[in-house]
Write the structure tokens for this entry.
Amino acid sequence: MALSKDDVLNAIAEMSVMDIVELISAMEEKFGVTAAVAAAAPAAAGPAAAAEEKDEFDVILTSFGEKKVGVIKAVREATGLGLKEAKDLVESAPAPIKEGANKAEAEELKKKLEEVGATVELK
């Protein structure tokens, strides 16, 4: 019995972020590809356009500051992680919260985390 695309998408929607990361790694390994879909768009615009402005950012939590609980809540909201996973991630700072985010998404996440007392940098 073959699964429909909707079945696969619904199954993925119920997974934790860590499970999705593991799934992507397994798919890359099985099919011998990388999940660099966003890299195709700048290439279509030409190499000069791609070099002018960075379009993917990693949001790195460098410190949770004085209000760890607030930062954990913000990380959970942004990533969909469970309480334990978010707590472990926050306590392991410096740690990436989101990788490959577009500029607007990265800046919005940075603003939310800084509002609750975290120190964040975009790379």
